[in-house]
Amino acid sequence: MENNMFNNYREWLNEQKMPKGKRSALLAGLELFAKNGYDGTSTAQIAETAGISQATIFKYFKTKQDLLMNILTPIIENFIPVYRDDFFSNFEKYNNDLPGLIHFALYDRYKFLKENSDSILILLSELLINQDVRDLFAKLVLDSRPIFTQTVLKSLKDTGQLSENFSPAEAIRTIVGQLLPFFLQMHFLPETIKNEEETLKSIEKIIITTLGK
């Protein structure tokens, strides 16, 4: 994968060189797996949404599972690492500013989750039940650990503003613990949130108050 930055995985996929029928199947699978789940989506539905025949799907993918893995594998192995590295490269800007670091991390990662909601929802659901996906994601986590330690955890510690009650790793879990439920609430229960921006500001305030000295 070239290190070009795209707004989301769907945009990246549209730029890849592949037969039109294969791309259509991948895009339709991405949409329907996110909306209905893997088990709730048939190849007939994918074919109809893609505007192709089921025979075309099986020309490029041996099974529905193969189609799923052809969606998730490049997300885990190529797309996420590019955005991971871009995200981590910004942390050194906040060595003496815990509130600024928290603001950046919260808003940047929420933007990424929101713009890639279909990909993220498929990934989250498959992590619960699919060993192949878990193995791929575990490798991503292990590969990310050195740069994560050298950038994110170090930056949190170097601010000198992190409460002694929290280690840098615990601070990250606190941020994720606030961000992920909000993302899921915005996707599945948007009517329960009156103002997205105001809620984000409230979450940011809670995290800064909790983690700061």
TrEMBL record:
UniProt domain HTH tetR-type: residue ranges: 19-79
Keyword DNA-binding: yes
Keywords: DNA-binding
InterPro entries cross-referenced by the UniProt entry: DNA-bd_HTH_TetR-type_CS, Homeodomain-like_sf, HTH-type_Tx_Regulator, HTH_TetR
Pfam families recorded: TetR_N
Residue ranges of the annotated DNA-binding region, renumbered to this chain: 42-61
The UniProt record lists the keyword DNA-binding: yes
PANTHER family, alphabetized: ACREF/ENVCD OPERON REPRESSOR-RELATED (PTHR43479), ACREF_ENVCD OPERON REPRESSOR-RELATED (PTHR43479:SF11)
Name of the protein in its database record: TetR/AcrR family transcriptional regulator
